[in-house]
Amino acid sequence: MTTPRIAQRNASQYVGQRLPFQGHGSLAGDLAYHCPFYGRLPDDWCHILSKHFDSLAHNEPGYVVTSYGTPIAWWTPQYGWIAPDVKYSVSTGKQQSYTGVPFTTLKEAFKELRASGS
Q: In the chain, where are the structural domains located?
């Protein structure tokens, strides 16, 4: 099955269902079975992303949305949706809004990790 190319403004329809897509630009979403690449994600967020994907059970995928090769939102069964409240370029900012995933603060993300015992 080929990954559909979509208008970036329609990304939330794919993100909400965790379906693979490639935007007509640098926005993309796909299933992931292990910690994906980090791109320009800040170090603290890299740590959180890594911990979240370490929590995946065997053969249980997560989902990652990237912009210019940087994860801007992800989902895992244990933690749900995370969208780092990180500011990038204007175009990535637009892409962050197209995901439909609300921003998560670093404080909220670390609190979730502590609560899960990770």
A: 5-112
